[in-house]
Structure prediction request, 188 residues.
Amino acid sequence: SYDRSFMDRLVFIAGLCNHAKFEERENPIMRRKTVGDASESALLKFCHSNTSVYDLRSSNPEAACLPFNSRNKLMITMHKVQGRAGEYKLLMKGAPERVLDTCEFYIDHDGSHKSLSEVKRAELMKSQEILAANGERILRFAETLMTGVSDSFEFDTDEMDSANYPTMGYTFVGMLSLEDPPREEVPA
Prediction:
């Protein structure tokens, strides 16, 4: 069993570190048309099935974003922590090995923070390999808190190499696997 807050944190990151949007609200969640790439659209539907993504995004507006690119293989969004001066929650999603490389800690299933040992890294890689062997696409999610930020601070999101915010020392929160439906051109 796991602590519900563990799942809530994963949904929080996957819903906010995500630019997909619903085109409409009438159809059931899984049938709604979306604007965004396939992975982000799938994450949007997953998150909205667990919480209101509309409420999540309105109460945690995005201040800046390091967009995903083929070089970084990850995305980071920055969100001002409401009611706490000078604090930003930095949320990351991306390729499993790339995200794990940025992490120093992890959230255990009971919700506690722990140091990410080499043994735990190997365990996480093994979990990923099992899912990938089933043909599933894996995304990992992580977070960190940036404190002491002045009101005039501007995030440099042009290149990860020139970042003026943390890109290492994150806390690994979890991973999600996506199963791609077969394409029409693929024989049965």
Q: What stands out?
A: The chain has five helices and nine strands. Residues 40 and 50 are 15 Å apart (CA to CA). Strands lie at 21-22, 34-35, 62-66, 74-80, 88-94, 103-107, 113-115, 137-146, 170-178.
